[in-house]
Every structure is written in structure tokens, then in C-alpha cells.
Amino acid sequence: MERQHNHSYTYKRLPLILAVFFQVFFWLGPHGMAQNDIDFLKGKVLNSESREPVPFAHVFFKGFENQGTVNDIRGEFKLRLIQSADSIVISHVGYENQQLPYSDIKEAGQVYLVPKQIEMAEMVFFAGENPAIKIVKSAVSNKRLNDPENLDSYQYSAYNKLVFSLKEAEKKDSVSVEIDSALKGGHLFISESYSEVSFKKPGNRNETIKASKMSGFKSPVIAFVSSTFQPFSLYEDHITIFDIPYLNPLSKEGLNKYDYFLEDSIQNETGTSYIISFQPQKGKGYLLGTGIMAISSNRYALENMVFKSLDNGSTLQFELQQKNKWDGNHWFPEQVNSKY
Description:
By secondary structure, this protein is mainly beta.
């Protein structure tokens, strides 16, 4: 089987004034017993070029692939120590594998992955069904079972952070020059809040903001964008970005418009995570995205997804990241991160 497709998670800088970063972290009920940090190696995985976090990398001791972990949206990981192991392996779709001595990571605390630069091309499959499609079909069939919106009720606490920053523009008008001079490269606007949310069927949601803080440039554009931005659902047939519906690869229609490839399988405490990359089929790139997702063998639920816009020169460039967690009874969002 030969294939070539886009695994690069770097995207070009656009001539836009605003860059938007939105993060949500969820807490469901009381936390479990604290683990002894002495028994774990903690670190952070970063992109060697952009120095930004690389989420959902597989981190494990060499020779113990089935006892590894997957880092979170912030790039952070916590790996249980194995006395007989001395080398750490970090792998991720779209990046070169990295192998380092345990002592190096313990001392530095950071690992840098080098992005692969692979051009997107049509995928060709031969005899037999593509195993990735079989897994995605099972996940689509189980969407109703795993979608939190189908629960009778739930409640959680959430920390939200919304940041607007400046990006370099090819040409600056008088407004952007004025803003740039005033802020000297700082953030335009930062909003933080801590809230408690309760939900009860059918669609009755109540959010109580316990604490909030806002600072930065007072702009009607920022006020409009921040007031209309909402956390996204990755179980809907479409992922809506600023009122634009992008087709979800985890949908029946998506099965006819995306190519899927099974990149890896990872053993963890909930079962097996199937790492699947996706890209638009040839000639079907309109309102589609590209990226990777992990589907668990536990109820064929979505564990995490990176969904990003195509690098085709469109005005809106974005990257969405979501991490879900199994609480023993249901899968529920744990971290959400968006970049525009």
C-alpha cells in the first residue's frame, strides 16, 4: 500500500490582524485520590519550529509501548516510571519520532518534535476494506450513545480563556498600525472566567459564572466575536466555525467525502485507541477539513480530535482540538482548544 497525504500541522501566516485562541477545561465532580508524583515522569511536547504544544502524542518507554500515555492539549504528559527502562519514545502523526534518554527529559522537562513535510495526495487502497473506515463507521453508529447531549442530565465546572492577539500583516492600514503602536505586540483582549454548568433534557442548560476577568483593547469587533464564540460539538454532523458549517469526518456524509487511514493503535487504561488521520477525497475539498482523531475501542467513542482548515489560501484558517475523558460511565469533554 502506498500513500502520501498531509501530516503537517504547521499552517501559513495570513494577512489578518487578529489571532483568536479559545480554551476550555472541564471538571466533572470530585477528583480522585492524588497520585504520588515520585512514581511518574512529567514533561511537555513542543513543535520544534513554532515552539507551540503538540497535543495527543504517544509517549512511552522503549520496549513498553503498551504501557504508555497520550499527552493533553497543552502538550503535557505524565508517564508512570518503569525501573528497567531508560529511553523514552515520543511519536505523533505528522512528526518525526523522537527517542531520548530518560535522564534528558527528567532534566529538561521538554521534548521537541520535528514536523514532517508531506504533500497531500490521493490515497489508494487495494484488496479488503480499509480498516480505518470500519472503525469510523462503528464510531458514527455509536454517536448517540457517546454524545453527552443525549444524557438525561449532567453538570460540570469549567475554566474558559479567550485571547485575541496581533499577527503580522503583509500590509497594515492606519487602524492596525495604531493598534500595533499602542500594544507593542501584546494581546488585544483577554477574557477569563470560571463557571458551573448544569444540563437537563431536552436542552435545558444553565450556566452560573462564579468569577470573571476581562482586560485589553475596547473594540466592537472583539466584543462581537467574543460574544458569538461558543465551544464546539464534535458529535454533530457539521462543525460550525463562525456560522460556517464544515463537514465532520465523524458523520455518515463524511464517510463519502473524506479519506481515512489507520496510523497507529495505542493500548491504555480504557482499551485500545485507534489513531486515524483524515483528509478530503480528491475533488471534494469544499467546507471540509483535515487532521487526526483517536477512537477508543471502549464504545467506539471519540477520545480526541484535531480538526484544521485546508491550507488552500482561504481567508479563515483555524485549528480545533478536543480531548474527551472516560469517567467510568460516560465519555465527556475534558479540554477544548481553538486557534484562528
